[in-house]
Amino acid sequence: MSVQTMSLSGRKKEVSNKKMTFWESLYLVAIVKGLFITIGHLFTRKVTVKYPEEVRTRAGIWRGQHMLKRDEQGRENCTACGLCALSCPAEAITMTAAERKPDEKHLYREEKYASVYEINMLRCIFCGLCEEACPKDAIYLTESKVLVPASYDREDFIFGKDKLVMPLEMAMANAKNRQN
Ligand code: SF4
Ligand code: SF4
């Protein structure tokens, strides 16, 4: 078989420049054929859903919105080591490290913490590698089904600590559940 006639998909068709017959030039047969294809699609299983009224069931391995964890005393776990940012294939994470002050021991678990921690949701591919890399069990991808809201403003996609840090009430509730 020559390279010109080779077809990997088996659907390759040779283009012919032969003159059309009278019936072909009316395009009636082609239009009827096309209509049958369209009608056929009415009876096949639909692959689309009416989002947002209908939401697809997620796979068991679904990874949702990130969360920066607090410990059982409500202190932030993150020590701004930067390993999550280093392991991120999309270079979506940036942070600024700061030294914990003596009167901030109730806020941050480690001596160093992230004063700024940002994830660019336009870059993130929700791979979960940041979670894998974290030595402090500080970041994880939740099972939240809430998607990143659409916006015309790029700034809205930069999620800072206000959106990422676990709410204090949640940390306290988790600690209570662990005790029971
Ligand atoms: S989930 Fe993946 S892409 Fe997103 S911030 Fe973490 S490592 Fe980067
Ligand atoms: S989330 Fe984990 S890996 Fe990332 S800076 Fe904080 S402690 Fe380090």
Automatic annotation (TrEMBL):
Belongs to the complex I 23 kDa subunit family. The gene is nuoI. This is NADH-quinone oxidoreductase subunit I. It comes from Flavobacterium silvaticum. It is found in: Cell membrane. NDH-1 is composed of 14 different subunits. Subunits NuoA, H, J, K, L, M, N constitute the membrane sector of the complex. [4Fe-4S] cluster 1 binds at C78, C81, C84, C134. Its cofactor is [4Fe-4S] cluster. InterPro entries: 4Fe4S_Fe-S-bd, 4Fe4S_Fe_S_CS, NADH_quinone_OxRdtase_chainI. [4Fe-4S] cluster 2 binds at C88, C124, C127, C130. It is a peripheral membrane protein. The keyword Endoplasmic reticulum does not apply. It holds the Pfam family Fer4_7. GO terms for biological process: aerobic respiration. GO terms for cellular component: plasma membrane. It catalyses: a quinone + NADH + 5 H(+)(in) = a quinol + NAD(+) + 4 H(+)(out). Residues 69-98, 115-144 form the 4Fe-4S ferredoxin-type domain.
